[in-house]
Amino acid sequence: MSDYLDPANEELLQDFFAEADQQVEALESSVLVLETDPSNSDAIDEIFRAAHTLKGGSATVQMTELAEFTHLVEDSLDAIRNGTVVPDETVVDILLISIDVVKSMLDKRRDGDVYAGDISEISEQLRSLLGETSAEEKATSGVSSPVEPFGTEGQGIKVKVSFREDNPMNSVGGIQVYAALKKIGDVVASDPDFDALYEDVFRPVVTYTVVTDATAEEISTVVSLPDVTESVSVTEALREPPEQPLIDTKAATPEPVLNSTAAPTDTPSAASKGSQVAKQSRSDTRKVAAGSILRVDSRRIDDLLNLVSETVINKASLNQVSVKFADDLSTFQTSDARFRDTVREMMDVLSDHFQKVADGHDPKEVRRSFAERYSAIGSTYEAFQAELKDSVSRLRNTAQNLGRIAGELQEGVMRIRMVPISQIFSRFPRLVRDLSKSLKKTIELEISGEDTELDKSIIEDLLDPLIHCVRNSIDHGIENPADRIAAGKPQAGTVWMRARNEGNMIVIEVEDDGKGIDVDAIRAKAITKGIIHPNKQLLDVEAFNLMFDPGFSTAAEVTNVSGRGVGLDVVRKQIEKLNGTVTVWSTPGEGSRFTIKIPLTLAIIQGLLVRVGEETYAIPITSVIDSHRIQPSEIKSIDGYEVFNLREDVVSLVRLNRLFRIPTEENPDYHYVVIVGTQEKKMGLIVDSLIGEEDVVIKPLSDHFTNTPGIAGANITGDGNVSLIIDVGQLLELGLNREREAREKRASRELEIGRYRD
Amino acid sequence: MKTKQDFPTINEREAAGVKPDGTPYRVLVVDDSAFVTKQIGQILSSEGFEVVGSAANGEEGVQKYQEIYPNVDIVTMDITMPKMDGVTALEKIIEFDKEAKVIMVSALGKQDLVKKSLLIGAKNYIVKPLDRKKVLERVLLSLQ
């Protein structure tokens, strides 16, 4: 087992970083609460606690610079908590900058490095916050620290204790001994007095006057605390103090003394050695450590355990059913043997009966006696049937249970990977604050649905797109305060971030109450950039979607916030990578709204299974728009490409059999066409038949096949076969490229024709 | 896992965390920092103590104590914790069980709270960052 106490221990570091990140997040959100509500004592306590835990942690892993800095922060927080410093805007700014410093210190450490930035300025600011307070503190403590012995009674035993100064909390000893003495008797006086002991000042020697029945030896055992007390002397107070120790604990407890005197000399070297080792091992193993910690509510694991135990029970009952079926088989064999015997016997006696009829017996009579004798034959299998029925119903029950458990297990395992979206939402208050400050706009952020959960791997990829959207809203959407007032709106703009579940999808909205999207500006821009033809009629929706085009930005000038034209197309790309969609809606003058829809998890999707030749393919249902059965005559050809009229739209067609080179009947009576894509970008896939919908578990393809265009992965269907999952995004791109090439070819041809005419 | 059977011990030494009757001392660790909890746990269990429970805040700590009482010999209590701080939790525990043995765990700078705790009835205190020897020494001292 690796030593968890070694400051270079990988596990310890991982735990430390995970925890530190949480504390930093807590710090930041609480500081922001404080900004709006300076008297919120819960927030102050939370800040204080987080800073304190951070300090303790960083000292443990020997990150001295971090420990020292957080200590400084903690001191200034203490001043806020005492009420001596009011957390106004400057204070909040200083605190936020301090948090940033802590963050970069942590990041540096994570990279196996030590923060080398200049912190003197911020330290100075923190100290200046403190400066006023510490002066005040000194003033008050000066009043209340008169050292006057009050042991006037002179009764009892005097216990003179000298304390070690090298103890890290050397000012606690006086009280510790006081508390210890109180257990065996009454402490009637002390020199310096109790209040002085309570101050945070080291007192090398304290004399207590105790009334107790305990013997001197007992007292000195109680009072001698390893590495707290140096020596103890007990004298009867009535007598003149002989000033000679009855028992010198220094000699009695040599080990702790040795131990702690040795400690200060060798800790620094050990520390530096430790950090060197830590540095090396950290940089070696950092890649492994990154992002591998997932905090899971233990109840979720318990649920899984429950389900697993149910599965075990289920397995047992399945075993029972299989035994039952074996029994049924033997019942069947017995019945069957009896049946065969009867039939054989019947055959034997048949000729006798024929003879009887031939001999002139009444055929009716013969038939009656025959039937009487063999009537039992009909019920030969009755017992077997009853048993089989029972077995089948049991099997059905078990299968149903198994289905339910498997479903819940699947969900349970998924839920382990689920984290609340607040993990990324929580970063936005700070972002919005900083942005609105730098843009001189007043903006409020309202977050709702932050408990909505989604897959951890998705949440990490969602941050950048969301930041883009929020920046976009703040920079382009919300107007300057003056413009807002002129427009009759409240001076402060609002940005809403909402998350909610919608079936198997998560919907995240970023909405603002700004000026909305200027469709005409987009249009003009798109024309100058050559994205659309000047004559093109543009619907609002189409205009909004143009904003997602690469190289498009409507900001008049580039600010440092957004407007470099690399925003929204990146957003769309990233969201599409997550199998999601992003749309914009806007009402001029009232605001705009980005809506991001993504599947709950990447690992399981709903798929439409289709057949092409002998092969089965799965198309993610989220990208299926509809499906049609068409006659071959409905397929038209434009420029050598097959297209199909879908209501008013013309949709280009791709034959999957040709794309994947599967030999199949090309001219059936009907084609099945699955329309895939988004509202703006569609294409039809021609398949042989539709099979149906099924939950598809995506398995990644092994390395050799990852580059296969149009295939996203593989899946094992219910009947155990492998089906390939179609990557609709890639297919659309493929189709678009083909179209673009064709258009370019045609354009150059027209150019040539023009030249020819000239 | 090393056991006595596997490795014949050359220098036989009594594990410090074991009572005279051979059963281990039982410890409840209350700390909001998971890794401090882990550290204390490792230090103590290496000496034969048994960590019978842990809690992430004062409230939970008091609850746990009441739950497992009297099957607990000593409590380590962090001072700064969410929901309920260690000093309040100490008060509640002492209120519930006058004989409770509680050791405060504190980082530097909390001297006043440490003093307060000692007056309320904490047996001792440990200063973070934790030092193995001191933790054991102070825990054992409080158990005597």
Descriptive notes:
The complex is a heterodimer of chains A (about 750) and B (about 140). With about 750 residues, chain A is an alpha+beta fold. Helices cover about 50% and strands about 20% of the residues of chain A. The model of chain A is unreliable at about 130-155, about 240-290 and about 555-565 (pLDDT under 50). Chain B is α/β, with parallel strands linked by helices and about 140 residues long. Chain B contains five helices and five strands. Chain B has helices at about 35-45, 60-70, 85-95, 110-120, 130-144, and strands at about 25-30, 50-55, 75-80, 100-105, 125-130. Chain B has a five-stranded parallel β-sheet, sandwiched between helices. In chain B, helix 3 links the parallel strand 3 and strand 4 (about 100-105). Chain B is globular. Chain B starts with about 25 loop residues before the first strand and ends with a helix. Chains A and B meet through helix 1, helix 2, helix 3, helix 6 and helix 10 of A and helix 1, helix 4, strand 5 and helix 5 of B.
Tell me the Rg of chain B in angstroms: 15 Å
Multimeric status of the protein? heterodimer
CATH superfamily of the largest domain in chain A: Histidine kinase-like ATPase, C-terminal domain
Distance between the termini of chain B: 30 Å
Largest sheet of chain B: 5 strands, parallel
CATH architecture label name of chain B:
3-Layer(aba) Sandwich
Summarize the amount of helix of chain B as a percent range.
25-40%
Quickly give the structural class of chain A: alpha+beta
Strand portion of chain B, in percent? 15-25%
Number of domains of chain B: 1
At the first level of CATH, the class of the largest domain in chain A is Alpha Beta
* Beta-strand content estimate of chain A: 15-25%
Spatial shape of chain A? flat
Basic shape of chain B: globular
Order of helices and strands of chain B: EHEHEHEHEH
- Helix content bin of chain A: 40-55%
CATH top-level class of chain B: Alpha Beta
Distance between the termini of chain A: 86 Å
